[in-house]
Amino acid sequence: MAGLEAKGIQGPFVLQGVDLTLRPGEWLALLGPNGSGKSTLLRVLAGLLRPRKGEVFLEGKPLGAYGSYIRGRLMAYLPQGGPYPEGLLVEEVVRLGRLPYLGLWGREKEEDWEAVEWALEATGASRFRGRFLGSLSGGERQRVLLARALAARPRYLLLDEPTTFLDLEYQGGLLALLGNLAAKGIGILSVLHDPNQAALADRIAVLKGGRLVAEGRPEGVLTEALLQGLYGPSVRVVLLEGRPHVYLDG
Predict the structure, then answer these.
(1) pLDDT-based confidence at residue 170 (cuts at 50, 70, 90)
(2) Position 212 in a domain
(3) Is there a domain that residue 198 lies in?
(4) Are strands 187-191 and 156-160 parallel, antiparallel or unpaired?
(5) CA pair distance 97, 120, nearest whole angstrom
(6) Tally of structural domains, the chain
(7) ABC transporter domain: which residues (predicted)?
(8) Does residue 11 lie within any of the structural domains?
């Protein structure tokens, strides 16, 4: 099965021989303490950083073999920070997600408008479509930027801490959306800090010190032994309806 693959990735910075595969139709959560290389790995997979050793493959071909527009149709990346076009309206920002199909001078077609409308509705961003991006709260802005990524209708979606700035209601809505998108065939790789959010994914990969130290189903990865090694001895894990639930003792 085709996918997005990292093979033997070393550097830049902390990454040490990371092998990882994101398959179509699965949600893979990436966990690890601060400084473990999670965001760096996402940037390498997105083609924004070049590793010292190893290579990234997309659909069986080296990532560098794709032109920027074709790669943008296959894969969308949502980073943690900007800069972002503060002076654009929300709808205009989301329409930028269609650039891989239009180029700089292409004319939008019905399918482009449909993709933008779907992305706005799916992320709950349609109600402030007429506002400027710079006028939004952090959580509202996060939803707009996710909508821009989704508007490309990518096969693979790379998300760096997508629940940042979102309140509990919208965190739950976003996590449910990721599960639904994966069920529709999109491969999703999301950096998450909360193990309980990661437990909702199909598979979890754990980085520590730039190395991949665990990978598998949530119930096999989220063990007290592993999490205590990452976050300290007060971490506890219980199974609730077959799903691991993580909390701090005391």
Answers:
(1) confident
(2) yes
(3) yes
(4) parallel
(5) 11
(6) 1
(7) 4-234
(8) yes
Q: Counting every residue, how long is the chain?
A: 250
Tell whether the model's pLDDT for residue 81 goes beyond 80: no
Inside any domain, residue 206: yes
Rounded to an integer, the average pLDDT of 118-138 is 93
3-state secondary structure of 174: helix
Task: Indicate which CATH number applies to the domain containing 208.
Answer: 3.40.50.300
Read off the pLDDT of residues 132-154 as tens digits, 9 standing for 90 and up.
999 998 889 988 999 999 999 99
Q: How far apart are CA 39 and CA 242, in angstroms?
A: 30
- 13 is in which domain, residue-wise? 1-59+158-164+186-250
**Two structure tokens written together for 206:** 């754990």
Q: Where are the alpha helices (DSSP H) in the chain?
A: 38-45, 68-74, 90-95, 99-102, 110-122, 138-151, 168-183, 195-198, 218-221, 224-231
Question: What is the distance between the alpha carbons of residues 9 and 18, in angstroms, rounded to a whole number?
Answer: 5
In sequence order, what are the residues at sequence separation of 6 or more whose Cβ sits closer than 8 angstroms to the Cβ of residue 15? 9, 37, 40, 41, 44, 51, 210
